[in-house]
Amino acid sequence: MTLRNLYQEQLDVLLNDLDAMGFKVSNIMQKTIVSLRNLDFELAHKISSSDYEIDKIDHDIENKCIRLLSLQHPVASDLRKITGYLKIITDIERISDQCADICEIIWLKNLNSDTKYLDLIISMLTKVYDMFKRILKIVKLYNLEECKDICEFDNEVDSDFTNIISNICSFISIHSDKTEFTKSEYIQSNTKISSKVKASVDLLFIAKYIERIGDHCTNIAEWVIYIHTGVHLNLN
Fold first, then answer.
1. What does the pLDDT average to over 93-115?
2. If we measure between CA atoms, which residue out of 20, 94, 85, 86 comes closest to residue 51?
3. Which of 41, 98, 213, 234 is deepest in the core (most CB within 10 A)?
């Protein structure tokens, strides 16, 4: 095997490792949706406590990239590949972190099946999950228009985020106003009202984490375009 063939084989291994990492994070996202939809607290705890596994994969791929950079001194398209892969694994690792953060909030057990706007949150998370699955395909099978379409779709996620935040803040404002209660009514209702507000605040944090996942998907699409064109577009 020539040095060039060996080098190309190492690049292929990098891409396969990246793809495998993406597949694992895709499974984590799917389980996060299940945990949120079913309020499966044990599953949420399991996901949040196993995030170190993705961190390890991230570090392994990063070390391989650095080794190639130091030993092979790649130029032009090969340099873009390795640089792009480093950026992409960082965004994939961040998505895993966001899922772990969401599951940590679920584990607090403030949410319940009657929590207002929980269904909108689940719908938003499902959308970014679909974005991520599309992203994994274009990392290996480059398609410029698909990259741009995914980035465009993030606008819909941002719109959902704005709508959810507005609704939840209004809901918190209404249920935090104690002036309408007498003292005895307030004492009797305080626990119930407090639980509603806690759940709503949890949803605010979850919505932000989901919005960030959408941004990371957009980042990945931008880096895929950079790998193939040498142009780093700002589509976020």
1. 96
2. 94
3. 213
Cα separation of 168 and 198, whole Å?
A: 11
* Closest alpha carbon to 97 in 54, 160, 137: 54
What tokens does 105 get? 């909030």
Can you give the chain as a three-state secondary structure string?
A: CCHHHHHHHHHHHHHHHHHHHHHHHHHHHHHHHHHHHHCCHHHHHHHHCCCHHHHHHHHHHHHHHHHHHHHHCCCHHHHHHHHHHHHHHHHHHHHHHHHHHHHHHHHCCCCCCCCCCHHHHHHHHHHHHHHHHHHHHHHHCCCHHHHHHHHHHHHHHHHHHHHHHHHHHHHHHHHCCCCCCCHHHHHHHHHHHHHHHHHHHHHHHHHHHHHHHHHHHHHHHHHHHHHHHCCCCCCC
236 and 220 Cβ atoms separated by less than 8 Å? no
- pLDDT confidence of residue 186: 45
* Nearest residue to 176 (alpha-carbon basis) of 194, 199, 200: 194
Task: Provide the token pair at 50.
Answer: 């196993």
Q: How far apart are CA 46 and CA 60, in angstroms?
A: 23
Among 150, 170, 168, smallest CA distance to 208 is for: 168
Per the listing, tokens 């099978």 go with: 141
pTM above 0.70, yes or no: yes
Amino acid at 30: Q
pLDDT digits (tens, 9 = 90+) for 77-88: 889 999 999 999
Q: Kindly give the interhelix angle for 118-140 and 144-175, rounded to the nearest 10 degrees.
A: 160
Judging by beta carbons within 10 Å of its beta carbon (0-12, 13-18, 19+), is residue 113 exposed, middle or buried?
Answer: exposed
